[in-house]
Write a structure and sequence with these properties.
Elements lengths: L14 H4 L6 H6 L3 H4 L11 H4 L6 E12 L25 E13 L2 E13 L5 E14 L5 E16 L6 E18 L2 E13 L6 E15 L60 H4 L3 E2 L17 H13 L4 E7 L6 H21 L7 E5 L12 H7 L1 E7 L2
Length: about 400
């Protein structure tokens, strides 16, 4: 504060009694707590706009504003001068443009703190230039339930003038201010704000407090508001499963009627034309060659067929040629002498040797399968050499083809 004349009383002892404003504590106390629980995730695209952009916790607002300042005609901002009859006092013009910026932090939707600064290039009543400026901080109480949010504010700071020494000089006074306004949040990160304030500061003359009025409109950048949760994408409808036509099988033999030569009589699964769908019997001659084939011999621990086996093998060739409708699996068996893994290979090699003989003598290879089971399926226990000889054998099993 610059030097004052002794004749200027300091009126701030009466500011409390003169100020007609109080903080809007009732607004803060009455604000429903349910708004704080309403999180941003619930404000999706389907939420009505009036609720979609209501204030949230930990919101930051950065505002640039402009408007009008109407300083009191008795505003006591000047450097006293003893060489002038009025002591250096000059009233400022009634209305001047008012530009500034503020930053606000709102830890909860209904309460926040703000810092701001503003200035104007004004003139005195005599036309001399004088810059008026103000800085301060404020408490803000607001009804943070909707995208249109009313608020009240109260704060304190400094109101100052800067001009040529011959005009008002440089002077700073303490100022209190109270006011209210309205915020409109059209989008998630934008707000438009209207403020009207009464600035209380020292007045010229014998004590007293004067009132200066500010009216501004601002645009705010809103930070800290989470993006609304995206609505879940609709799941694609599953394509209906293709409906396969129901094909009848009247005799329940597993062969559908269009492929069944005997629709009402089930197939006999015996390895003889099992795919025609008709009952049948294994020919007597074929039955002689189902099971153990007697008369097939091999050299010891070898897959070489002995010459004494030719009659049995040639009879098998003749039978298979007479009945082209049948196919057989040739299964080789060994006794339990020696390593099991070796016997498995040996039994399969012996079965393959029999199949090769049949093919060389005119039996189609696609009618033959081979398998070696080693000592795993003996006919009788391997208690002596005679029993082991019975277990070393070749078997024919009818199969479908």
């Amino acid at each position: 504060m610059s030097r004052r004349s002794a004749s200027r009383p300091r009126p701030f002892a009466r500011l409390r009694a003169a100020a007609p404003w109080t903080l809007a504590a009732a607004v803060l106390a009455a604000a429903p707590s349910a708004s704080a629980a309403r999180g941003p995730a619930s404000r999706g695209a389907k939420t009505p706009w009036i609720h979609r952009f209501a204030p949230v916790r930990n919101q930051v607002e950065l505002t640039a504003f402009g408007g009008l300042m109407a300083p009191s005609r008795r505003l006591e901002l000047y450097v006293p001068r003893d060489d002038r009859s009025d002591g250096g006092f000059m009233p400022l013009r009634r209305v001047a443009p008012w530009l500034g910026a503020r930053a606000g932090y709102f830890p909860i939707p209904h309460f926040g703190l703000e810092l701001e600064g503003a200035a104007t290039a004004s003139h005195t009543s005599t036309g001399d230039r004088a810059t008026l400026w103000q800085v301060g901080g404020a408490l803000v109480g607001q009804l943070g339930l909707w995208s249109v949010t009313p608020f009240v504010t109260a704060g304190a700071g400094a109101l100052a003038v800067r001009s040529a020494p011959a005009v008002l000089g440089r002077d700073v006074d303490v100022a209190l201010f109270v006011g209210g306004g309205l915020k409109v949040f059209p989008t998630r990160m934008l707000a438009v704000r209207l403020d009207v304030r009464d600035v209380l500061s020292a007045g010229h003359g014998i004590g007293g407090v004067v009132n200066s009025v500010q009216a501004t409109v601002g645009v705010s950048l809103v930070l800290g508001r989470p993006r609304p949760a995206s609505p879940p994408r609709p799941r694609p409808r599953p394509r209906p499963a293709a409906i396969e036509p129901v094909v009848s099988d009247q005799d329940l033999d597993g062969i559908v009627d269009p492929d069944d030569a005997c629709v009402t009589e089930p197939e006999t699964a015996n390895g003889v034309t099992d795919l025609d769908g008709c009952p049948d019997e294994v020919p007597v001659a074929v039955e002689r060659f189902v099971g153990v084939i007697e008369g097939i011999f091999f050299a010891t621990d070898s897959a070489v067929i002995e010459s004494t086996s030719r009659p049995a093998l040639d009879e098998a060739v003749e039978l298979l040629q007479q009945h082209p409708e049948i196919a057989v699996r040739i299964v080789g068996h060994t006794d339990d002498v020696g390593d099991r893994a070796h016997n498995l290979v040996l039994s399969r090699d012996r079965a393959q040797a029999v199949a090769d003989y049949l093919v060389r003598h005119g039996v189609a290879s696609h009618r033959l399968e081979v398998e070696g089971v080693g000592p795993d399926h003996p006919l009788v226990p391997n208690v002596d050499e005679r029993a082991r000889a019975r277990n070393r054998r070749i078997e024919f099993v009818l199969v479908q083809h």
